[in-house]
Amino acid sequence: MNSDSTILKETCAICLENVDVLKMFSVDYCFHRFCFSCVKKNVEVQLRQGIVPKCPFEGCRSDLEIDSCTKLLTPELIEIMTQCIKEARVPFTERIYCPNSRCSTLMSKCEALEFSEMKCKNARESGARKCIKCCESFCVNCKVPWHENMSCYDYKSSHIYSCSKDAALDSLAKKEGWRQCKKCSHMIELAVGCFHMTCRCGYEFCYTCGMEWREKKPTCTCPRWDECYIIRN
């Protein structure tokens, strides 16, 4: 620590600036310290990538706590961080998102089944589920609002589906070239970057053909990128 008159200062390990000690952030558990500005920028980048924020110190894997970050982040980023932490606690093969566009709550398959069995006697056999937050019924198999007395195939072939928001979204997705995750049915648009996509549920796939990536390697022979998505004018 350096002393400048009566103000104690400390050097940030990232920007190397001498900062007022009262504006230094201490990471819980590992106690590495950085200035507020650098931590905020680092956390924002990690959250935009869908990653639970960790200590910026190279090689350190300590998670940042939400309570410690409230003084640094906007309410929007706090909400994103809360969602990232919740998602990290649920294995991606167990994640379900409510198909209600006004809700989109994350649940585990087990959590959704337990809640649904309290409301519906044959939930396990039928595939009917209820969202733990908004209580809307949906199909766990095709991830759409519940279609009673109708199979998933019959529902998607029906007039009901053709007039639904899901059909409108599918039509728009085809027009815009968006991809739908095969695991959770979430729609994904590539704005910039390579064709290796990682969905919010953790499923990795090729944006061009939809084939799965395994162990960070593609299972298809599609190009990895296109310059029009890499170079922005």
From TrEMBL:
Keywords on record: Ligase, Metal-binding, Repeat, Transferase, Ubl conjugation pathway, Zinc, Zinc-finger
EC number: 2.3.2.31
Biological role: Might act as an E3 ubiquitin-protein ligase, or as part of E3 complex, which accepts ubiquitin from specific E2 ubiquitin-conjugating enzymes and then transfers it to substrates.
A family per Pfam: IBR_1
Family under the similarity heading: Belongs to the RBR family. Ariadne subfamily.
Domain of life of the source: Eukaryota
SUPFAM superfamilies: RING/U-box
Signal peptide range: none
Biological processes per GO annotation: protein ubiquitination
Native organism: Olea europaea subsp. europaea
Residue span(s) of domain RING-type: 8-226, 12-56
Gene Ontology MF terms in the entry: ligase activity; ubiquitin protein ligase activity; zinc ion binding
Xref: Gene3D superfamilies: 1.20.120.1750, Zinc/RING finger domain, C3HC4 (zinc finger) (3.30.40.10)
Source species taxonomy: Eukaryota, Viridiplantae, Streptophyta, Embryophyta, Tracheophyta
Protein name listed in UniProt: RBR-type E3 ubiquitin transferase
EC category name: transferase
Catalytic activity: [E2 ubiquitin-conjugating enzyme]-S-ubiquitinyl-L-cysteine + [acceptor protein]-L-lysine = [E2 ubiquitin-conjugating enzyme]-L-cysteine + [acceptor protein]-N(6)-ubiquitinyl-L-lysine
Cofactor(s), names only, from the UniProt record: Zn(2+)
